[in-house]
Amino acid sequence: MQRLSLQQKLLQKLSPQQIQVIKLLELPGLLLEQRIKKELEENPVLDIANEEYGSESEEYSDDLKTKEDNDNEEFSVSDYLNEEDYPAYRLNTQNFSKDDKTVDVPFSDGTSFHEYLQEQMSMEMLDKREAILAEHIIGNIDEDGYLRRDISSIVDDLEFSQNIKSSESELMTILRKIQELDPPGVGARNLRECLRLQIFRKGDQKPELKLAGMILKDCFEEFTRKHFDKISRKFGVDEDTLKEAFAEILKLNPKPGSSFSNTISQGNQAIIPDFILEVVDDEMQLSLNQRNIPELNISRHYTNMLRSYQDNRKSMTRDVKEAVLFVKQKIDSAKWFIDAIKQRQETLMLVMTEILMYQKEYFAEGDETKLRPMILKDIADRTGLDISTISRVSNSKYIQTHFGIYPVKYFFSESMQKDTGEEVSTREIKSILQECIGNESKHKPLNDDKLTQILNDKGYEIARRTVAKYREQLGIPVARMRKEL
């Protein structure tokens, strides 16, 4: 049985303007520039500000505010842009003739890694069936250059997808030909095979190359675990000879696919800082990096058009009213967007200024040991903002200082108490840990127990498992893997 009932609920919802501010706050400078360009393309009312237009938007915003309560209909853009409003030369160019030929020049974005392998394979004397098999195998090679799919699975794929019956021995014959292509090591199914293919390509004329090949063939597990004594006893070689063989292996590329460089389609991504910190007369000056961020305002053309229509409201037709309301809607959207950008700038400066004051000693010298423990809640309490807002500001943002460029979230760290009761940042402990490992003897590296003892002697009450966690966060392997001959 259906019944109708009334329920009263109190809900909290974000307005479109608030959502827009939140989304803009998350964007770093480069993405903000792209977002502004997109808004300029979608909203014809927005314009890039200059001195000529400087006071126009302010003057119009007050004028519009008094009138916008009179018209509240929805409308379309079709009748708003009339050809009489623009001179003909603004819409059409007259610098070509009917006899001119338009030629589309194709743009090449370079050759991909798999296309590079296909080009080499096309030079081999393969029949149609072998070419199809080779293309399918190359398609299963990942960007690192490895064939991580089993040959038996590829046999099943060919039978189900292309109705081609093959065998593992036939595919292995094709795979051997692929493994002869450049870069050396491509088509390997594991790291051991990859390194062996590269050593085989170098030949065995030198004793160290021959020994390196034997190590990879018969003592690969001992090699990965750096059991130098076992390898030395097995092959009856001294430490110097073993060191030369290891040096040859270390020259090899564990990811041969990464050696394929495409200068056109691949490029280095430069970090563009969102904040710039300068020291002038022993005083720190913080500013936003607005080099590529244009200042926006309301276009004078549309404001003048709207004024002329509003001055003749009595004689306006229905189409003109729709055009007027469309312009007002776009102007509202433009004003929201401009206000959101201004609010974003104010929030960024407020948060970064408080971080600067909280870590004043660190920013003065750049000494990592001066970095105080700081979490998101500390800055949220100082600014009066929500923790989620502080998180959005710190993520994907960078600051340029006189001692380098750092991500903003780098300055946040947890605290740990020393034996004296003083609270220090975990960043300080990681710095000391990294320094100890950097100064250790590579013939006898420090294990986690010894590192724990060193930190305890310095007054840091820390457990061994915590040292292991910090070491892993720094990307430092265990002592056995840091051992060298």
Topology readout:
Layout: H1 16-26, H2 29-42, E1 46-48, H3 56-67, H4 113-121, H5 128-139, H6 151-161, H7 168-178, H8 191-202, H9 207-218, H10 220-224, H11 228-235, H12 239-250, E2 275-280, E3 283-288, E4 296-298, H13 300-311, H14 318-358, H15 360-365, H16 376-383, H17 387-394, E5 398-401, E6 404-407, E7 415-417, E8 423-425, H18 426-438, H19 448-457, H20 464-473, H21 479-482
Parallel strand pairs: 2-5
Antiparallel strand pairs: 1-4, 2-3, 5-6, 7-8
Short description:
The chain has 485 residues and is an alpha+beta fold. The strands form 3 sheets. It has a 4-stranded mixed beta sheet, covered by helices on one side. Strands 1-4 form a two-stranded antiparallel ribbon. A two-stranded antiparallel sheet has the order 7-8. The protein contains 21 helices and 8 strands.
Give your account of this protein's structure:
With 485 residues, the chain is an alpha+beta fold. It has four domains: 16-83 and 317-341, no CATH class; 113-178, no CATH class; 191-252, no CATH class; 344-482, Arc Repressor Mutant, subunit A. It has helices at residues 16-26, 29-42, 56-67, 113-121, 128-139, 151-161, 168-178, 191-202, 207-218, 220-224, 228-235, 239-250, 300-311, 318-358, 360-365, 376-383, 387-394, 426-438, 448-457, 464-473, 479-482, and strands at residues 46-48, 275-280, 283-288, 296-298, 398-401, 404-407, 415-417, 423-425. Strands 3-2-5-6 form a four-stranded mixed beta sheet, with helices on one face. The protein has a two-stranded antiparallel sheet with strand order 1-4. A two-stranded antiparallel ribbon has the order 7-8. A hairpin with a 2-residue loop joins strand 5 (398-401) and strand 6 (404-407). The protein is extended, with a radius of gyration of 33 Å. It starts with 15 loop residues before the first helix and ends with a helix. Mean pLDDT is 78; it is low at 51-98 and 263-267.
